[in-house]
């Protein structure tokens, strides 16, 4: 039995890049850290909230790479003069990726009480009807 992929479907032209994007996202290996919420804040806007307690603004980076929102966190290792009797709060790095549809843009990001909020907005293009003339051969 032959596997029919999205890019190979006869009625889905030009979707090969979307298929590669989905495969890459599935392989990204997000392990559940940090936990996050995704909420719809209006008909055309969304908010992603990550629990990043212990991270400062300087420890976080937010980029959009090939229609993927990538949020990375890396805490600086400033423990040279500290002696821990117990260390239960890990200072581990993370990378969390979200696939963005065409027309979704990142509006802003803000930190509040250990939560990183990333606001997204969907800009809907006007429907364009195009008539194609047929050349006479």
Describe this structure in words.
- Pfam families: HSP20.
- Keywords: Stress response.
- This is Molecular chaperone IbpA, HSP20 family.
- InterPro entries: A-crystallin/Hsp20_dom, ACD_IbpA/B, HSP20-like_chaperone.
- Residues 27-137 form the SHSP domain.
- It is a single chain.
- The chain is mainly beta and 137 residues long.
- It folds into two domains: 1-30, no CATH class; 32-77 and 86-122, Immunoglobulin-like (Sandwich).
- Helix content is 8%, strand content 36%.
- It contains one helix and seven strands.
- It has one helix at residues 16-26, and strands at residues 36-42, 45-51, 60-65, 68-73, 94-99, 104-112, 115-122.
- The strands form two sheets. A four-stranded antiparallel β-sheet has the order 1-2-7-6, with no helix packed on it. A three-stranded antiparallel β-sheet has the order 3-4-5, with helices on one face.
- Roughly what fraction of the amino acids lie in strands? 35-45%
Shape: elongated
- Helix tally equals 1
Q: The biggest beta sheet, please?
A: 4 strands, antiparallel
Indicate the CATH class of the largest domain: Mainly Beta
Number of domains: 2
Determine Rg (CA atoms, Å).
21 Å
For the record, the CATH architecture of the largest domain stands as: Sandwich
| Strand ordering within the main sheet | 1-2-7-6
């Amino acid at each position: 039995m032959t596997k029919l992929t999205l890019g190979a479907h006869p009625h889905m032209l030009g979707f090969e890049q979307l298929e590669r994007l989905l495969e890459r996202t599935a392989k990204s290996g997000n392990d559940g850290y940090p936990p996050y919420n995704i909420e719809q804040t209006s008909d055309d806007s969304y908010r992603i909230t990550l629990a990043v307690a212990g991270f400062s603004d300087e420890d976080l980076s937010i980029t959009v790479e090939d229609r993927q929102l990538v949020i990375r966190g890396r805490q600086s290792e400033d423990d040279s003069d500290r002696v821990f009797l117990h260390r239960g709060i890990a200072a581990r790095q993370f990378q969390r990726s979200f696939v963005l549809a065409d027309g979704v843009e990142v509006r802003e990001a803000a930190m509040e009480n250990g939560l990183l909020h990333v606001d997204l907005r969907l800009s809907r293009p006007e429907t364009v009807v195009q008539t194609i003339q047929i050349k006479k051969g």
